[in-house]
Specification:
Largest sheet: 8 strands, mixed
Helix content: 25-40%
Distance between the termini: 33 Å
Order of helices and strands: EHHEHEHEHEEHHHEHE
CATH class: Alpha Beta
Strand order of the largest sheet: 3-2-1-4-5-7-6-8
Length: 257
Amino acid sequence: MQDRVLAFGCHPDDVEFMAAGTLALLAERGYEIHTATMTGGEVGSPALSRAEIHAVRLKEAAAAAAVIGAHYHYAGGCDLEVEYNEFYRRAATRIVREVDPFIVLTNPPMDYLADHEQTSLLVRNAAYIASVPLYDCGTSAPPTKRFPYLFYWNAMGLKDIFGRPLPLHCVIDVGAAMATKEKMLACHASQRDWLAAHNKMDSYIQTMKELSRGHGRLIGREHGEGFIQHRGHGYPADNILASILPGVCKELPVRGD
């Protein structure tokens, strides 16, 4: 086993929509994979109660993780209530400390839903402050000893709230992992009816494939997953995904690079 990768999304199925192919490729290379969600998707049903859909979606998230032998973590938050406050800061940091990841993948800073954007900020903060010894986040796990590589997956719909593409640093060719990615997303069967009713998606599996094809076109491949690397002060700035996945991770020119 080489090291740990944490994909930390807001809702069950966020990871599977946008990063499951990359996780499958990393798992094949011996990385220990962890997935986490800030919420339990408590309002994601047209028919079930909050408690009922919460229980269903946590089981679906765990089942999706199990497809690649990953470990699933629930941070304890509630759908459509995520905000940058003490409860959520502690919850996010607790998971980062307990996993102590080498690489973190999470929601982008700008996306269609405020819950996603708040999760992005919370996970970014947790990746940094998990190493602060005097910060008490309610776990017996020791402070981390490193700043992880931090990447944001692309926004849903491949555009920001103003309709512009995000400044991707790289796209992973996930063609070889698409069957696994589809199997992971299919574990979230409860979302078929919800996304059809609320988001007018004819098929959530087809929507995922359309997103992956959009990424693939950026690198001349059939399917892809795009990422932005957080390169702020203290974080490692070399693209570790390109080192781990040579020939599979295609780096893109970004203004200012």
